[in-house]
Give the backbone structure.
Amino acid sequence: MQNIFKIVKLAKPFHRFFIIIAFIIILTTALELVSPYILKLIVDQIEIQIKTGEGNIQTLYWLIALMFGTSIVALILEAINQRIGDYTSARMGKYLIEKFYQKIFTLPQKYFDSQISGKILNLLGRGIVSLQDFLGASTNFIVPAFIRSIFIFIVLSFYSPLVAGLTFLAFPFYIYVSYISTKIWAERQIKKNEIEDDTRGRIQEVVSNIRLVKSFNTQKSELNLIAKRMSESVKIYDKQSLLYHAFNFLRNFGLEFGVVVVMVILFRNTFIGIFSIGEMVLILQYLNQIRRPLFAMSFILERIKQAEAGSKSYFEVLALESTERMPTDVVKPKFDHPTISFSNVQFEYQDSEKVLKDITFDLPKNETVALVGHSGAGKTTLINLILKFYDPVGGTITMSGEDYTELSHQEIRSHISLVFQEHELFSTTIFDNVAYGKTGVTESEVKQALKQANAYDFVMKFPHKLKEKIGERGVRLSGGQKQRIQIARAILADKPILILDEATSSLDAKSEKLVQDALEKLMKNRLVIIIAHRFSTIQDADKILVLEDGKIVDSGAPGDLAKRKGIYSELLQYQIQGNQKLLEKYELS
């Protein structure tokens, strides 16, 4: 029940709507309970007329009109209630998505390192559906079931305490069987949810990497993997279904048996004259109505268990510790020409050895600094620390003399633009991608940025030009075009620090030349940090930092490092030798 209290607490902004809905339901339930009594009065008039001839036809008409009127009012209230319910449900769904989405933005990067995006989306969807279903069921069934049960018990007790007692013996039996059934069902549902989350995550990964899957001819193995996982889910569902229907038969059989016993007593008492025909009709109708609160209570128990199972992961995400705050609307860079300094910085990922060890360096303003080293040396981790995706486990990082711990994530990142190796683009238009992160951008500003990025000409060839949609992660663009769109975005952002993460590593020679020309314009009057394996992209750097095994093992100007023995000169020689062999092969040297 712990998650149920969380659900009620989470829905606090909507409590006033639930109270209104509950009040309307109480009125509707009261009208539904009055109708059988009016019918009793109608039957009484008919019986009087048959036995004595003293029935009142006018009273009969008024009773019929009253019963019709209560039905109409009940219908009106039901329509109003459903409209308020739809209104509340839509806003509740919006609220739950925003709550989850906002939480996601404040979680540490390590959470996303260990999760598959498709799995996150699946648990979000299931959590919202289960929460909405539970809140709707609570409002629509708990209140009327409670009111209906109490009222019927009072009326039956007035006419026959024995009938009332036997009728309500069904409640503990029915609820207990439902509780056992739903408890076992929920335990299995949690396992089923885990399988489905992993399955949806894998499907999304396959769709995102569909070219890889097709090129390696692994469609069959991927299909078999999903089929195997879904078979496991189906087996669990089969057990759930068998259990549910077995328990459902048991509780319904018990209910029907109890109803038969009560009816025998009712019909006998009517036969010997203890009850009138009208009283018998009244009790029969209430006996029929007593099924509704029983079914409602069973339904509520099922919804409670479904909500607990479905919302488990949702609440686990909400319970995670937030390490960031949601950004405010606009934060201007705090420093015009920022510098960055590392002092004895150490870092390790969770359950791993130290990735960075006693890193110390200074990055002056408007300097171009390159990070060089073998794969796994710690270059990307260092960039992640500069962006405050992670916090160091030791040492200090400062920006223009201010400790990173005193600066918010938003303040730090307001100084930094990135051009990624992976093409970080959205499936929307070219305009949206270039203007991303800035408000009030005009078409002329976007066009100017595209021109500076050497991207304007190819963009203007598209049928919709700036409004051209580029597909998921820019799939409709070539590698060089994607990079130049990213560069245009960075130009428009106009931030004092620029990070280039292998920005030209996957490009052909012509595209690299166009991208490099665009980067030269972008790099002016900025602190530029470059990760690059192609040394042609860093030949004009002011300083090189050489990393190996999480340490800075050398630093200096490119020319100085090339002349002395070390990792930089070793890597440089490999590239020179590779180029030399190519020249010799085609007799160009």
